[in-house]
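A reminder from the course coordinator: this example appears on the midterm review sheet, so study it carefully.

Given structure:
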């Protein structure tokens, strides 16, 4: 199976491939020595509490992680990004991500990731696929709340 190309300079991507194909794409990326894909289910992370628990576990945040947006920013900022590896955080069924939280929480997530990306710009030349981390949202084709949030925060993204 052929998967979308994420080698563009953009850091945020959306895709409308079905959830099963998305998981297969994640498994294919696991076989690439230059990427470390991290799969996060939007369906299982409808609240900030669940999101913070899963992201802390998947990214190996310290045990003292506070489970709030400030702690997320601090932990993400302190996270050790391996120089030769691109972390690809993949949100399956992303339109369910933080759906039971306030709208500002999704916007805050995107704004924090955008800020982290800007700070990572100095390292983007070191990676074959344009940066040390990328975000891929698997979304519904029409009326995606993720796409709306990306546009509301003036985030550059590429639909693949």
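Designed residues:
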């Amino acid at each position: 199976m052929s998967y979308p190309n994420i080698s563009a300079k953009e850091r945020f991507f959306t895709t409308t491939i079905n959830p099963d194909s998305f998981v297969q794409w994640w498994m294919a990326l696991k076989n690439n020595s230059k990427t470390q894909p991290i799969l996060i289910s939007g369906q299982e992370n409808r609240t900030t509490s669940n999101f913070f628990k899963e992201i802390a576990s998947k990214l190996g945040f310290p045990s003292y992680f506070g489970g709030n947006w400030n702690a997320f920013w601090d932990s993400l900022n302190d996270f050790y990004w391996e120089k030769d590896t691109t972390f690809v955080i993949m949100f399956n069924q992303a339109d369910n991500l933080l759906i039971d939280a306030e709208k500002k929480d999704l916007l805050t997530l995107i704004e924090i990731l955008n800020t982290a990306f800007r700070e990572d710009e100095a390292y983007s030349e070191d990676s074959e696929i344009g940066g040390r981390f990328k975000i891929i949202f698997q979304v519904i084709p029409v009326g995606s709340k993720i796409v709306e949030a990306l546009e509301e925060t003036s985030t550059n993204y590429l639909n693949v």
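Residues 12-159 form a domain with the Barnase; Chain D fold (CATH 3.30.370.10). The radius of gyration is 15 Å.
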